[in-house]
Design a protein that fits this description.
heterodimer, A: 351 residues, 14 helices, 10 strands, 50% helix, B: 72 residues, mainly beta, Ubiquitin-like (UB roll), two-stranded antiparallel ribbon
């Protein structure tokens, strides 16, 4: 197969564009696509400070690499979630990449800062681990960006990610999520930073190819918690369609952006954000979802510790309440901690 | 040829030389979901892999959240 541009040996065929590129021309194509996404969607400028959410995977490291090459002011943020060997390896890859590029990387250690890894947070708050993980990441990305004066948070979500999420939202008619699905989520509060997805024009296979051709050492193995995730099923289904009908994913997602986004934006309800009473981050309720989760988890952990103490030490009042709570059941922390209950919850990504 | 696979990482021997497209069909893998790598080179579907080659078939599909909340 020949490169469409120079007729040299192709490295990658891009069937949805009816093209194939050699390595140098593919890398040029990739950078052009990212630059176009940033420019067309007015994501950020060369003056802005961009915080890149880095996981050690192909997408986020490819994104960080291309933004640095395009001379954007891109700093990485890695969140150590405490998911065993997977987290250790992904942190090592992120740190090694930063060192190789001479780029700044901020590392936030969830277990160190909040006393629990993502599994413990999930178990003790009644969430599944992916939900606790997503909520923690969104909260920390925003908080670090605001505290350290970044203009925008950039994530490595690619075309396949967005098409799979869209498919899930359509199959279940999650209208409230459809309304918020966009390559740019503007800031709606002084402490809510703008979020952008500069790889939304890039297919997942292209992001992996970019990483390989640039010699980026990324973590190939998957997060053990994501195995069996429904979005992987949607990706598989979309890839089956793509194999038979190239351009399906692009047509689905870009078509949504072109035809449906303007209509959805018109019906989008105004959401009033206020300051979380506990941490000051923006939320739709009085206490943000992250504080609720960490407080619930901490309260349950305290209750467990109390239960584990010998009976002779005399049971504190919490034990009576906690003893009535079935293990593994979702319980309002207020029931254990003796705090007011019934505070409204905000959507997860408004943290 | 030696073929390196992932999830979990493992190796297997495949007899004879084959085109990449045929190798993926033999492995029952969707070409949209993988890259085929030999050394530092990406192979397109029409390229041939020889008996002595070592190729990595690297999945490109990643991410995914399980359901947002535990079922009641």
């Amino acid at each position: 197969m020949k490169c469409t541009i120079c007729r040299g040996q192709a490295a990658l065929e891009i069937r949805r564009h009816n093209a194939a590129f050699c390595a140098p021309h593919f890398l040029e194509f990739f950078e052009r696509q990212v630059e176009r996404a940033v420019r067309d969607q007015k994501m950020f400028t060369h003056e802005n400070r961009v915080l890149v959410a880095v996981s050690g995977g192909k997408d986020s490291l490819a994104l960080w690499d291309v933004l640095l090459r395009l001379n954007y002011r891109a700093t990485g943020l890695y969140i150590h979630l405490g998911i065993g060997a997977y987290s250790e390896e992904s942190r090592a890859k992120s740190v090694a990449f930063a060192q190789s590029r001479g780029a700044d990387l901020i590392v936030v250690d969830l277990p160190q800062e909040h006393g629990m890894n993502v599994e413990e947070l999930a178990r003790n708050s009644g969430r599944v681990s992916c939900s606790a993980c997503g909520l923690s990441k969104r909260y920390i990305f925003n908080k670090v960006a605001v505290d350290q004066g970044f203009d925008v948070v950039a994530t490595g979500h690619n075309l396949d990610d967005e098409a799979a999420v869209l498919m899930g939202n359509l199959l279940h008619w999650q209208v409230e999520y459809l309304v918020r699905q966009a390559p740019v989520l503007p800031s709606t509060h002084p402490r809510m930073v703008r979020k952008v997805k500069p790889l939304y024009r890039i297919a997942e296979r292209e992001a992996a190819a970019y990483a390989v051709l640039r010699g980026i050492d990324y973590i190939v193995e998957e997060c053990p918690n994501s195995l069996g995730a429904r979005s992987l099923l949607y990706k598989e289904a979309l890839n089956m369609l793509e194999a038979q009908s190239p351009g399906t994913k692009q047509s689905l997602y870009w078509g949504f952006l072109e035809h449906m986004r303007p209509r959805l934006a018109a019906v989008q309800e105004g959401v009033t954000l206020r300051d979380c009473l506990h941490c000051g981050q923006p939320t739709t309720g009085e206490v943000c979802a992250f504080c609720k989760m960490t407080e619930r988890a901490a309260a349950r952990m305290r209750a467990r510790l109390v239960r584990a103490q010998p009976a002779s030490s005399g049971p504190p009042p919490e034990e009576t309440v906690a003893a009535g709570v079935p293990a593994g059941d979702a319980v309002d922390p207020a029931a254990i901690a003796g705090e007011p209950i019934g505070l409204p919850s905000g959507p997860d990504d408004r943290a | 040829m030696k073929v390196i696979l992932h999830h979990p990482r493992r190796e297997m021997q495949v007899e004879g030389k084959r085109r990449v497209a045929d190798l993926l069909r033999y492995l029952n893998l969707n070409p949209e979901a993988v890259l085929v790598i030999r050394g530092d080179q990406l192979l397109t579907k029409d390229m041939e892999v020889g008996e002595e080659d070592v190729v990595e078939v690297r999945p490109v599909v990643s991410g995914g959240e399980r359901e947002r909340r535990r079922a009641p």
